């Protein structure tokens, strides 16, 4: 009701103001329609990108369905990792006589061995694990930690 009163006051007796007012309303409608269309197109593009990425991921899963290539390399690269962790416990068993605190000392030494592993090795193991399990978000996080750029 208030806009009608303001319109009546402004345009009362002045026909050129009424046409100006209607022109402004038409211009606002056109701008709104343009904004709505651009948002719709952007959303459609995003939807197509997500759909394409899902299709690509599904195709990768289908291709790797019967392949052990990734798991094989993960196992090969995991052997040193397992050895670094288990070697202090093997040494504990080889001693023969257990003394108090030996288990804690072996666990501490195992963690130190893992801590002294080269960074490149840890990154490779993490990447291979994430790729094997299809965890792309984790892979992106690892890449961003080390300033690596992953191709898309």
Give an account of the 3D structure.
The model has no long low-confidence stretch (mean pLDDT 79). The protein has a domain at 15-66. The chain has helices at residues 2-11, 15-63, 69-95, 102-115, 119-133, 136-145. It is built from six helices and no strands. The protein is mostly helical and 152 residues long. The protein starts with a helix and ends in a 7-residue tail after the last helix. Helix 3 (69-95) runs antiparallel to helix 4, helix 3 crosses helix 5 and helix 5 (119-133) runs antiparallel to helix 6.
Name the overall outline. Answer: elongated
Q: How much helix is in the residues? A: over 70%
Radius of gyration: 33 Å
Low-confidence stretches: none
- Average pLDDT taken over every residue: 79
Task: Give the strand content.
Answer: under 5%
Q: SSE order, as H and E? A: HHHHHH
Topology:
Layout: H1 2-11, H2 15-63, H3 69-95, H4 102-115, H5 119-133, H6 136-145
Helix pairs in contact: 3-4, 3-5, 5-6
Q: What's this model, at a glance?
A:
The chain is mostly helical. Helices cover 82% and strands 0% of the residues.
List the keywords:
152 residues, 82% helix, 6 helices
């Amino acid at each position: 009701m208030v806009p009608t009163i303001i319109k009546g006051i402004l345009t009362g007796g002045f026909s050129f103001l009424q046409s100006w007012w209607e022109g402004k309303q038409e211009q606002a409608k056109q701008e709104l329609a343009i904004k709505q269309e651009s948002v719709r197109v952007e959303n459609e593009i995003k939807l197509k990108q997500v759909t394409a990425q899902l299709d690509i991921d599904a195709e990768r899963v289908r291709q790797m369905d019967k392949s052990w290539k990734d798991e094989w390399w993960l196992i090969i690269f995991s052997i040193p990792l397992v050895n670094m962790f288990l070697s202090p416990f093997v040494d504990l068993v080889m001693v023969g006589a257990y003394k108090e605190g030996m288990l804690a000392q072996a666990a501490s030494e195992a963690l130190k061995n893992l801590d002294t592993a080269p960074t490149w090795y840890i990154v490779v193991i993490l990447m291979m694990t994430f790729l094997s399990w299809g965890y792309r978000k984790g892979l992106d996080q690892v890449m961003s930690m080390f300033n690596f750029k992953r191709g898309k």
